[in-house]
Amino acid sequence: MKxxxxxxxxxKEYKKYVNKKVPKPSYLKNSLWAFFVGGAICTIAxxxxxxxxxxxxxxxxANTVTVIIMVFLGAFLTGLGIYxxxxxxxxxxxxxxxxxxANSIVAPAxxxxxxxxxxxVGAKMFSLAGPxxxxxxxxxxxxGLLYYFFTR
Amino acid sequence: MAVKKxxxxxxxxxxxxxxxxxxxxVGPKEGEGPLSSYFDVILKDDLFGEKSWELAESKMxxxxxxxxxxxxxxxxxxxxxxxxxxxxxxxxSASFAARDLGIPFxxxxxxCSTMTESLSLGAMxxxxxxxxxxxxxxxxxxxxxxxxFRFPLEHGNQRKLxxxxxxxxxxxxxxxxxxxxxxxxxxxxxxxVDLGIKDANNMGAAMAPAAADxxxxxxxxxxxxxxxxxxIITGDLGKIGKEIAEELVLDxxxxxxxxxxxxxxxxxxxxxxxxxxxGSGCGCSASVFCGYIYKEMMKNNINSVLLIxxxxxxxVTSTQQKQSIPGIAHAVSITNNRC
Lengths: 152, 339
Hints:
The complex is a heterodimer. By secondary structure, chain A is mainly alpha-helical.
């Protein structure tokens, strides 16, 4: 028992000691990058939506087409090896928009192509995006049920 | 009776085995680093003409063995054992290379401590009289390690400042019972030490206590002064781990501040090459030892080295199960006391 306690306190002490040594990232610089890159991606998407509306699409259709285009752009830039360089600078700024979602699907798909189209690409494609889908679908079902029971 | 054992964890060799030749192969990024001129082969393309990074890594390991054998003036058929391992699941690089080379093979897993693990076992085998020539070899590859342990390469994420960069490289050393070259006098086998670090992006801090423990044990067991060595060098603790190891060793009363360094800090220019805390991987201490250190020893610029390769014994599964990272470090004492 005593040995257990000294072990834990030793680990705690070491963790504290290590934390003092860990360099802090530049939060301001990182936030600015995330803010402007994320903002730029959204501005581009808004520009596309507005243009589509000018061409006579209604709001729902324009949104759908915009999402398709943004997903395509995210995937395309991932394929060209540009999106990971952007993500390195922008962090959440390029991960949160839907183009980042495309990146998280295309990146493993590319990576595991060598293991074949079924066990590689097929099985690994959603290794990063899978959890987002599972909990996204899951929560939408719950919200749907709540909506059904409480608003009718 | 274990007549060659001294202290609790150290072996002192009767007829110290000789390292008669080494060879190192590294990737393009390592080739742009500060040690560039010491490596035997610098790859232009990290696929090395293969279909996958895993096969490329295995080829690096295989070619390193062939070239080390040649440089030691021996033939492949003279090599009686191959002690080797790598980071990939089930040691793909080492065992596939051993298949092609046709040398009797012991596969080792010591994570990034494999260079000194294989040198230790190799030296014991030679001094024990079980072989005259054998090879100790290991490798790692940035891209094959990333996909096994971290994220796909094209995924747009940010690396932590404590993260290290897996070295694409392989190093092979021929250990012989006689010949010309630096000799292995002692080996100190490390214990697994774990102080509860769980952050897989801060492996230096996870491994530093193991390194410090082995270094202290080495000096306790041998009774040597720390100034005995021109260079005391750990495998891949990186910037943060090195600082911690220094202080932990000092805490036990051994001052290594003057002659201590880390392979992970030598192989890259962290600022210019954006490698954050430094290099890591089996190939880190392997290529630095087989390239830089060995060549400097042959030129008599460095005459005594304590090489301590450091390994983080985590797996993808252990990390997912929220376990802490056990560290290991083995020390090999190599000197120019030529007979």
